[in-house]
What does this fold into?
Amino acid sequence: MLRRLAIALTMILSLAGAGTVQEDAEMRSSVLRQGVGYAVYLPPGYEEDSRAYPVIYLLHGAVDGQPADWFRFVAIDRLLDRLIAEGRIPPVIAVAPDGRRNEENLPATYFLNDADGGFEWERMFITEFVPYVERRYRAIVGTEARMMLGISMGGFAATVYQLRYPDMFGGAAVLSGAFRTDAEMIGMAQPPYERRFAGAFGAGLEGEARLNEAYRRSDPVAMAAGAQTSQQMGFGFWFDIGADDPFFAGNAAMHIALRDAGIAHQFRVGHGKHDWRYWDGALEPALLFLSDRMRRRD
It folds into this structure.
């Protein structure tokens, strides 16, 4: 019986076809005064029909991560093909922008604006990149059709964006978000601090000096405490973290802040670490959550 079901599913996927992926796309940015690379997945049938599609923005992880990671390490295109063919999610466009300032990415952008305004990745994304995607591709324009899925550093940024721009995005799924407690930020050794946060929060900062205005402005825990409830804002959060993930304490603090603020969200803990093996297993339920957000009209 199971074998017949597997064969039937294989035939369905074959008939439905596969989506297409372009890993080397680029948008010219006037904000950053340079090109911004991105990878894009277009669903099966995109070239044959004229319909418009919801968009999921994929924010990669790690200070040395890149857009292609989504397709090379967890084959998110094949997962999207299968979930679309099974009717469990609607056909979607998935776009993974490059969050690096350059190939070396020193320091990391963390998908934020630099504290000194020298490199404004966040402003580029909000004012240029999202509108560009909606012009360049047949995208549905509207909060309920814009979703975010982030891993690690990208999960941190997806949370910040959802709280900062509640009328722009309809939901954020966060896998192993790179949330740090204040104590962890204060205690971070200087080289990793400079590698990660010298741009977003300021270079050369030590100890409590790191908890400055730039940090608080993009601290998801502080942002959650001052946010309206998600019932008023109409968005949803999905958090998934491995029990042995080094960011577990920060994710727990994020959960508590959202709970105390009355912001509806789902917080899941699984067996695993901060790695692609865990994220590979966490992608499907995260995508199903985002699909549910797309189908709702809050």
Summary: The CA atoms of residues 179 and 250 lie 5 Å apart. The chain has twelve helices and eight strands.
